[in-house]
Design a protein that fits this description.
- This protein has 670 residues and is α/β, with parallel strands linked by helices.
- The chain folds into 4 domains: 52 residues, no CATH class; 161 residues, Substrate Binding Domain Of Dnak, Chain:A, Domain 2, CATH 1.20.1270.30; 160 residues, 3-Layer(aba) Sandwich (Rossmann fold), CATH 3.40.50.2030; 199 residues, Rossmann fold (3-Layer(aba) Sandwich).
- It has 26 helices and 16 strands.
Length: 670
């Protein structure tokens, strides 16, 4: 039986989303929200209790004692399903890294139209980490060697993925002892699929051992490669002013929404949109110009480097079309709903697929090729401009919020110490002193079975009150942006007193935007440098930090969670667990679920838990942070010790008469 339909306030906390959902209802059009209501999840499949890996099934195991036709137990089936999901997530993010490496190689060979190396400093820094010679060599020579090295990591059969050498030394030794250092990105993904084939690996711990190795091939492999090359080619992000939400669409301009995950496409469309002939072409069509906006992680890529506005996160891809103001939605890979095409048929919007890996029936396919990048980008924009004349009635919500994205690892390093004393030590000192209780990374997707953005923003705001510094990526970052939490003055009256002092002194928002979902590797590099700069132990698992994915939905999220666990982090997922037991299971063992927490914690110091209740997420986060503080012999969290310094205190003192100010500052009698 389908559950009762929710109202728009239950679908989303975002007023722009609510307005578009009302319009969809008035027009009789479905969205992911209404489809989620109409199609309740299978409680057997969602718990990982269904095996369809061979033609003897599917086998649905609903109580203890049942096995599949081959004899596979509940625990084996759950572990296999989880390993396959992690392998798919790792493949998606790592394949993105491979494509970036091919692009870098084409650039140095002079075969990639429109691309140049923009961050020479990062190129040299990364090359040095792998002992690639830089002295007296041109950027193209260095980049060529780096591209070759990175491409080799995918097909490599023996040895270890070189990117793992950037983890803390103690962590590398731990991985070596447990035999989980990935040998090659592709090899680990292929072996994951092989191990989970009918009749292969059937022991839970052994299966999940390889899940860790596969995830590490992503986090300390393909994903980190993707972030490195994106920075080298397009520039390492630094703070820039931007805007977010559907209100960034323009009534008098050709609106082109780019959606997906590949910055090679989106960055070139940005460049093409600024070409004089494209602007003139748009003006000849009756528009003032081309207005670009992003959805999902493509939004984060061009937002943090170019200041191009974000129209929203994952669940707003359909809602953007519902405005009636989008001439073209240009998509590449990952998180693209097939429903876009049928929805667009009710409007004038043209859905354009661009990746050789992705086609959607009914969409226009203009295949993107880095060798002709600028030419193809201009062709795509001309298609959008030609469609402007077909625009009908529009309804653009007047809802947008300013934000400051772009807090890369490099910029945080600079902002804490300047050009000559760049360091994470001030952050470490703030944690050691107790001004900052700990750090939380709130990341991940939207899920239409949750109330859009609610879990992300509720957890974020509650942690800020407890002096927890929050870093965010992906759709979670856009959720906070739409609420105004990514501004310097954002909610400082609502954050804890110690964190407020730090934010006011350094001049940062209490929530730091660190990029797209592939850029979770930036968080790993931050944690690694925090270890290297001292004061918080000698490995990542000792830092008072937690990762949370409150509204997760994709296999990539599971891969990210697994590599963060392997790196020593406590990871909390909201929503449902893919390895939970059935309500009528007699046994309370839930072997796989316990192994993800207790088993992995014993091995790696990190663990993965699935917690549906947001208040319990917050409680467990703070409990973990306080336990890590105690283990480091840091003072117990005490907010009463802080809140009387920083900019607010200076302004307060300046307002006092001179005698009273001297008394307050120096303790002399007034």
């Amino acid at each position: 039986m389908a559950k009762q339909k929710r109202n728009v306030e239950e679908y989303s906390i975002d007023p722009a989303a609510q307005a578009m959902l009302i319009r969809a209802d008035e027009l009789g059009l479905g969205t992911a929200f209404t489809r989620a209501d109409a199609l309740p999840p299978c409680n057997i499949g969602s718990a990982g209790l269904c095996c369809k890996l061979c033609g003897m099934g599917p086998c649905r195991l609903t109580k203890d004692g049942l096995t599949g036709v081959c004899g596979a137990t509940i625990d084996t089936i759950q572990a296999r399903n989880l390993v396959r999901s992690i392998a798919a997530g790792a493949a998606a993010h790592s394949d993105h890294g491979r494509d970036m490496a091919f692009t870098l190689k084409a650039v140095v060979e002079g075969k990639a139209e429109g691309y140049v190396i923009r961050d020479l400093a990062k190129l040299r820094t990364i090359a040095t980490k792998y002992n690639i010679p830089t002295e007296g060599r041109s950027p193209t020579e260095i980049a060529s060697d780096l591209a070759d090295l990175y491409l080799a990591q995918f097909g490599q059969q023996k040895g270890q993925v070189v990117v793992t050498s950037r983890a803390p030394q103690k962590r590398q030794q731990l991985w070596q002892e447990h035999g989980v250092i990935p040998r090659g990105v592709d090899r680990e993904v292929v072996e994951a699929l092989h191990r989970t084939h009918i009749g292969d690996d059937q022991e839970v711990a052994h299966l999940l051992h390889h899940a860790i190795r596969t995830a590490l091939a992503d986090g300390w492999g393909g994903s980190m490669i993707a972030t490195d090359i994106a920075d080298i080619l397009f520039g390492t992000p630094a703070p820039i002013l931007g805007q977010a939400n559907l209100g960034v669409l323009k009534e008098d301009m050709v609106n082109v929404v780019v959606h997906g995950h590949e910055p090679t496409l989106s960055e070139m469309i940005v460049a093409a949109s600024q070409a004089p002939e494209i602007i003139e072409y748009a003006q000849a069509a009756g528009a003032k110009g081309v207005n670009l906006a992003g959805i999902c992680c493509t939004a984060n890529e061009i937002l943090m480097r170019q200041g191009i506005p974000a129209a929203g996160n994952f669940l707003q891809q359909e809602l953007a079309i519902l405005t009636g103001a989008v001439e073209a939605m240009v998509v590449d890979v990952q998180c693209i709903m097939q429903a876009l095409v049928s929805l667009a048929e009710n409007f004038h919007t043209q859905v354009i697929t661009t990746s050789p890996k992705v086609k959607i029936k009914g969409a226009l396919h203009i295949e993107f090729d880095e060798h002709r990048a600028l030419t193809i980008a201009k062709d795509i924009l001309r298609h959008a401009i030609d469609n402007y004349k077909n625009r009908g009635q529009t309804q653009i919500p007047n809802v947008r919020e300013s934000l400051v994205p772009g807090f890369s690892h490099e910029y945080i390093n600079y902002m804490l110490g300047g050009t000559y004393r760049a360091s994470f030590r001030p952050l470490n000192d703030a944690i050691m002193a107790g001004r900052i209780r700990g750090v939380a990374a709130v990341v991940g997707c939207n899920n239409p079975r949750s109330r859009q953005d609610y879990l992300h923003t509720y957890v974020t705001q509650e942690l800020l009150k407890q002096d927890v510094l929050v870093v965010e990526t992906g759709c979670g970052a856009i959720a906070s942006a739409k609420l105004g939490l990514l501004l310097g003055e954002a909610g400082l009256d609502k954050v804890g007193p110690g964190l407020r002092e730090v934010c006011e002194t350094v001049g940062i928002p209490p929530v730091l935007h660190m990029g797209s979902c592939v850029d979770n590797t930036r968080i790993l590099t931050v944690l690694t440098q925090m270890v290297e700069d001292g004061g918080l132990g000698d490995d990542i698992d000792q830092i008072p930090a937690v990762g949370l994915a409150p509204e997760w939905m994709s296999e990539k999220a599971l891969a990210i969670g697994a590599y963060c666990v392997a790196s020593g982090a406590y990871v909390i997922f909201g929503g449902s667990s893919p390895v939970s037991g059935m309500p009528d299971r007699v046994s309370d063992s839930d072997l796989v679920l316990h192994y993800l927490s207790e088993g992995w914690e014993k091995l790696y110091g990190g663990k993965m838990e699935f917690i549906a209740d947001p208040d319990e997420m917050i409680r467990k986060t703070l409990e973990h942070i306080d336990q890590k503080r105690a283990a480091l012999n840091l003072p117990a969290y005490d907010p009463s010790r802080f809140g009387r310094s920083g900019d607010a205190r200076v302004l307060e003192l300046e307002a006092l008469p001179l005698a009273e100010r001297q008394a307050a500052l120096y303790g002399v009698s007034a």
